[in-house]
Amino acid sequence: xxxxxxxxxxxxxxxxxxxxxxxxxxxxxxxxxxxxxxxxxxxxxxxxxxxxxxxxxxxxxxxxxxxxxxxxxxxxxxxxxxxxxxxxxxxxxxxxxxxxxxxxxxxxxxxxxxxxxxxxxxxxxxxxxxxxxxxxxxxxxxxxxxxxxxxxxxxxxxxxxxxxxxxxxxxxxxxxxxxxxxxxxxxxxxxxxxxxxxxxxxxxxxxxxxxxxxxxxxxxxxxxxxxxxxxxxxxxxxxxxxxxxxxxxxxxxxxxxxxxxxxxxxxxxxxxxxxxxxxxxxxxxxxxxxxxxxxxxxxxxxxxxxxxxxxxxxxxxxxxxxxxxxxxxxxx
Length: 332
What we know:
The protein is an alpha/beta fold. It has helices at residues 10-35, 50-58, 73-78, 83-90, 124-138, 156-167, 215-230, 259-266, 270-281, 286-309; strands spanning 65-67, 144-149, 172-178, 181-182, 185-186, 207-211, 236-241. The strands form 2 sheets. The protein has a 5-stranded parallel sheet with strand order 1-2-3-7-6, with helices on both faces. A two-stranded antiparallel sheet has the order 4-5.
C-alpha cells in the first residue's frame, strides 16, 4: 500500500472505517458513562488519534504483537480485542480483561497479540523491546509495534530501548503518537528538536514521519517498517503527527491550548478523510458507509449492555493474581 492507499481494496477500506468508527463511538460512550457515574474514576480518550492504531494494525499479522499505553482502548480494539470484555473491565466486572481489577490502564489480550497497556509513561517501551528480542530468539518472524506518546520520547526507557533494539537488530517498530502535548506541556517546551523521528539517526535506524490523521499514510509507513523488520534489518521509529480532540483525561479542560487550534485539527478528522477516499474511489456506497457506522454504534451498545449485566468479581477472589498481600512481611 502506498501513502495514498493506491492498492486499497474495498474490504480493507470498509474494515478500517469500521474500526475507526468503533473506537470513536466506544470512547465517546465511555466519556458519557464516566460522567454519569456508571464507570468510576477517569479515562484518557483516544478521540482524534484513531488513525494511528488502526493504520498500524492494518500492517500487522494476527500473530504480531502490540504494546500499549495509558491511552490504550484504541490499540486493543484495533488489534482485534473484544469490545464487550473491554467495556466490562471499565465497569469493574469479572468478565473484563483484568477480571474487573485492572481498569482503563491495565488490560491485555494475548490471544490477539496485545501484550498490555501501561499506566507508566514510557513503561511499555522496554516491554515491547523485550518481546521483540523474544521473537528474534525464537525465529518466529513476528514483529512488535510499540505505541507511546511524545512525552514518553523524553524518558530514559525510550533511549535505552531504541539503542539496544538497533544494536541487536530487533523486529520492533516504535510508533510515537505525537499529539503535541504531554498532558498540558507543549512538545516545543520539552523537546529540543521539532521532529522526534529525527532521533532515529542517533541509533542507526530509519526515522519516518507519517500523517497520524490519515489511516492510509500510517498503514503505508507501517508496511515499510514491517517489511524492514521481517527481513532482519532491525527496528524503525515512526512519528505519527496526530491530535487528541479532547483533554488528556476526563477532567482536563484544555486551558493550555486554543479552540482555534482544536478546530483546525478537527478539519483533519481521520474518519471524515477516509470516508472521502472511499466515496471518491467508489469503494462503498453512502448506504454502506451509514450501515458501517450503525454497526459500530450497535457494537458499543451491546458492549455496554454486556457490561451492565455482568457480575462483579467475587470478593473472595480479591487477592487472586496479586503478587503480594497484607500478610506478607519483610524479614526482621
